Amino acid sequence: MQSSNSISVKVQTQYLSDRTNKENEFPFAYKITISNSSNQLVQLINRYWLITDGNGKKTEIHGEGVIGQKPYIRQGQTFVYTSGAVLETPVGTMQGYYEMKNESGEWFKAPIEVFSLAVPNILN
């Protein structure tokens, strides 16, 4: 399976302070924008996430699609969705990839670079 530079993934994160009532529970939302600059229609088939909390605890998530969908993304178009993760520490990271298929039937990975999840003002 190839990796693709024609699919870009941008991430925006937000700490959800109003969504917790436990001492060691830190909920975050992340908004993902997937842009297709290739010359073909692509479909997001699977996702893989590696979530690492501030203690080094790693959690892997494999699954079909995102938010219950396997979206098609046309050339020059974007797909945006919001999801979330709950950490046991106030800081952590996420990274991963999407397994995608183009209209020629070729499968490829669209990487998701490491991004931080952090409670505001916790880091200098």
UniProtKB/TrEMBL annotation:
Q: Which InterPro entries match?
A: ApaG_domain (IPR007474), ApaG_sf (IPR036767), Uncharacterised_ApaG (IPR023065)
The ApaG domain covers which part of the protein?
1-124
**Family annotation (PANTHER family):** F-BOX ONLY PROTEIN 3, POLYMERASE DELTA-INTERACTING PROTEIN 2
Q: What is this protein identified as?
A: Protein ApaG
Q: Which organism is it from?
A: Paraglaciecola algarum
Upper lineage is: Bacteria, Pseudomonadati, Pseudomonadota, Gammaproteobacteria, Alteromonadales
